[in-house]
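Name: Arylsulfatase
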Amino acid sequence: MNRMKPLLFALLAIFAGSNWAAAAEESSNAERPNIVFILSDDQAWTDYGFMGHPEIQTPHLDDLARQSLLFERGYVAAPLCRPSLASMVTGLYPFQHGVTGNDVNGSQDRAALDVPLRAAFHKHPSMIKTLVANGYLAHQSGKWWEGSWKDGGFTAGMTHGDPKRGGRHGDAGLSIGRKGMQPVTDFIDQAVAQEQPFFVWYAPFLPHTPHNPPQRLLDKYTQPGRAADVARYYAMCEWFDETCGQLLGYLDEKKIADNTIVVYICDNGWAAPSTNAHDPNQKLWKGYAQRSKSSPYENGIRTPIMISWPGHVKPQNSPDLAHSIDLFPTLAAAVGADAPDDLPGINLLDAEARSERKRVFGVCHSTHNMTVGNPHDTLQYLWCVEGDWKLLLRYHGKDTTKYHNLHVWDKAPVRLYNLSDDPHEQQDLTAMHPDVVARMTEAIKTWYAQSNGSSD
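Structure predicted for Arylsulfatase:
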């Protein structure tokens, strides 16, 4: 009997230890915040109530802005959905992760030609895979270019990504919002029942075309003197806002809002493809208004970025610059996960890091002719924002193996704007401020070279 005591004590210790480990894991899961990542699709940075638009009403996003660390001066890495989303997911610039446009060069069968590009892209660490590796359930809905939700590392989702079934850029996932929210709310129910922290990728095809808003909203925005397509776009912006209200309201209903980080950003800007009643200088050009989507101007690359986390993030309107590449390191730090050390972004919840940032950068590539393995081949513009200044630099490199050499830039035209005085970039100040042009041009050259592993 005495010889059984040590064995009994050992078994009890093992049992107690396993229970302690399970309790510790359960406690850890309970403490880690959920994450809801909201992405609008094709919405200009001005087109929200909280950003001061005189007509468009976005009451739910306005409420979120009041509860958030709000960056009115947020930027995306590229003015087009696919490279922009890829940069959010990886925390890298398009020329680093390789997705620079929407289509591979010569894409007759676009989905099939995407396969080698996606294979290379998914080798990079991602925000989603990092969260899942740290115990998160993750759901994909809406816009998603890089294969299926499984390919992206999600644990559940809507997009199948099968080329044989027309799978591309979201397929079945694009119904979210337009046809209800049940796939997302069902996932939230499951995660809550399993007592696991969750990540929701909510990227509805809104306010993107087709502009087919509910008639009640279209009637609201239709008025004499306003172009029909503008009225439809305005109505779509409010429709998107309503779906955000449904999602955020469900967090309240489930009593989990206080333990949920909500992130908001738009993939790229947009302006109605016609003469705009509020901007008579906006002219139609190849399907998009000039200086909007697919351009390096503010209407292409600027977006409000907001982060809400009750009890952890103080609501305030920050004057600091924010960037889409910051979201991966920010969320990793918030949940105690390890992001790659070499990511170029910062933790937006770190006030000191924000204050030390002097500039943000980005690119603009051709829209429809990516060259797999050569992300510099279709580069058109690089841009830099420094304080109130913004510089656009046209890239004229022909020998793409020497993209970082200074001769590539010698005859590249530039445009300089003061965004404080001229937020819609109407007056080029290049001739008036050659010192600013020289300083920011050199900053762009240095950033681009270093980002590509060159010290030249």
